[in-house]
Amino acid sequence: MFDVSSFRRQFAFFHHHPDWVYLDNAATMQKPDAVTEAVSRFYQQDNSNVHRGAHQLSQQATAQFEQARQTIAHYIKAQYVHEVIFTSGATAGLNQLAFGLMHTVLKPGDRILLTQLEHHANIVPWQLHCQRYGVIIDVVPLTADRQLDLNAYQQLLALKPKLVSFSHISNVLGHIQPVQQMVALAKAAGAITVVDGAQGVVYQQPDMRQLDCDFYVFSGHKLYGPTGVGVLYGKTQWLEQLTPLCGGGEMIDSVSFVNTTFNNLPFRLEAGTPNIAGVIGLAAAINWLQQYNNKLIIEHKSLLLNAFFQGARQIKGVAILSMPVHNAGIVALNVDGEHPSDVADILNQQQVAVRAGQHCAMPLFDYLALNGAVRVAFAAYNTLDDVNQCLLALEQAVEILTA
Ligand code: PMP
Questions:
Q1: Element (H, E) at 175
Q2: Rounded to 5°, angle at Cα 338 from 332 and 340
Q3: Per the omega criterion (within 30 degrees of 0), is the bond before 266 cis?
Q4: What atom in ligand 1 is closest to the CA of residue 227?
Q5: 182 lines ligand 1 (CB under 6 A)
Q6: Considering the domain 4-30+293-401 in this protein, what is its CATH number?
Q7: Which residues of the chain form CATH 3.40.640.10?
Q8: Which residue's alpha carbon is nearest to atom 6 within ligand 1?
Q9: How many angstroms separate the alpha carbon of residue 268 from the centre of ligand 1?
Q10: Using CA atoms, how far apart are residues 193 and 190, in angstroms rounded to an integer?
């Protein structure tokens, strides 16, 4: 059995906020003490810039930083450590891809394939460059139960897109996509595959060798790590073809006013001083997380999810958009006829933290013909008490708003 009490005790946040029910986990996760301690230890004891100092302190900071890269590469089972590129988050990773491929691989008239439920971070960067370079974007629609339409996906793959990019888990509905199958189908159609793992990485340890995608991006802060740090994983052959989005120090081999030659991977794609403490904090999060059996965490989260579904279905006037199966622990819902922000406001008054709105997925809400939803997102440190308090607050919201 997963011991949620001892897990939760490792988060100082909950000591500071004993009365809050934190269910905004899809926006960002709370940080265990192991992470906050690693970050402050770096600043208090080890702070120096990396990769450039002649002195021992810089060499030690560099060793820690590169050790963190190894930890992360090992965690995601990358074939080579240099395939882990540090970014400021999933958004930065996707922007690097859209920019970097557009100049080299994607040519006017080419097609790329996205899906109807993508986060704006997996739409806007492509759009910015596609418009300029004449690359066509196709979109995989959803079925009636708001799952990706895999038949339509296969038909769109027949148009031979150069690249397919989709999220591992929907940040609105919580639905887990059949990523393994989708990557295999895209590869069979000859496409470059990009997986937005922003929500996926915390649900399941991503295995790059098994998944075999060309790129996978995620943010540290959704994996118990600090904000402002993320990973762009890519296969060496593809990373080498990316035009760097940022130029500057460390990413070069030689610079003159006539020409610049670039450094090797991973440095070629990491211009400037990186978020050193963030990277060390992210590795600390992964090291800490690895002491837990993820199968038990998944079971615990599905217990919470099922209890929530059961309770919410009994509240008259609550319409649930998410499906309970193949769901990573996120529920989007509405109260009939009420604005999602009004519902979230009442939950806030009851000290239940959720998010309301379109969750950076406007095309999904256009498709659903809704102006938004309330999102309840469970994490491993949530308890059945949290579920019950949220349900009570939801009942009150319905009562107040429909009175
Ligand atoms: N993709 C998905 C599916 C997300 O949930 C998020 C964060 N909400 C992002 C991309 C962007 O992540 P970040 O804001 O950390 O860059």
A1: none
A2: 40
A3: yes
A4: 15
A5: no
A6: 3.90.1150.10
A7: 36-289
A8: 198
A9: 24
A10: 9
Q: How far apart are CA 253 and CA 265, in angstroms?
A: 11
Task: Report whether 354 contacts 334 (CB < 8 A).
Answer: no
Q: Write the pLDDT tens digit of every residue in 260-319.
A: 999 999 999 999 999 999 999 999 999 999 999 999 999 999 999 999 999 999 999 999
Q: CA 118 to CA 166: how far, in whole Å? A: 7
Instruction: Give the position of tokens 């793992």.
Output: 197
Measured in Å, residue 348 CA sits from the centre of ligand 1 at 23
Distances 121 to 180, 193, 287, 311 between C-alpha atoms, Å: 22, 16, 28, 33
Q: Is 167 in the pocket of ligand 1 (CB under 6 A)?
A: yes
Taking alpha carbons only, the member of 370, 327, 337, 373 closest to residue 354 is 373
The per-residue pLDDT for range 28-75, each reduced to its tens digit, is 999 999 999 999 999 999 999 998 778 999 999 999 999 999 999 999
pLDDT at 104 over 90: no
Q: Of 220, 115, 229, 95, which is closest to residue 164 (Cα–Cα)?
A: 115
In the numeric block, the tokens 């403490």 are attached to 277
Rg (CA), the chain: 22
Count the residues in the chain: 403
Q: Which of 366, 312, 371, 351 is nearest to 141 (CA)?
A: 366
Output the pLDDT for position 53: 76
Considering only CA atoms, which residue is closest to atom 8 of ligand 1? 27
Q: Is 91 in the pocket of ligand 1 (CB under 6 A)?
A: yes
Query: Is 24 touching ligand 1 by the criterion CB < 6 Å?
Result: no
Angle formed by the axes of helices 384-402 and 294-313, nearest 10°: 30
Active site residues: 360
CB 159 within 8 A of CB 111: yes
Instruction: Collect contacts of 299-303 with beta carbons under 8 A, ≥24 apart.
Output: 299/2, 300/2, 300/4, 300/380, 301/328, 301/329, 301/378, 301/379, 301/380, 301/382, 302/329, 303/384
Q: Where in the chain is the domain with CATH 3.90.1150.10?
A: 4-30+293-401
Note the CATH architecture for domain 36-289.
3-Layer(aba) Sandwich (3.40)
Q: What is the DSSP string of 96-107?
A: HHHHHHHTTT--
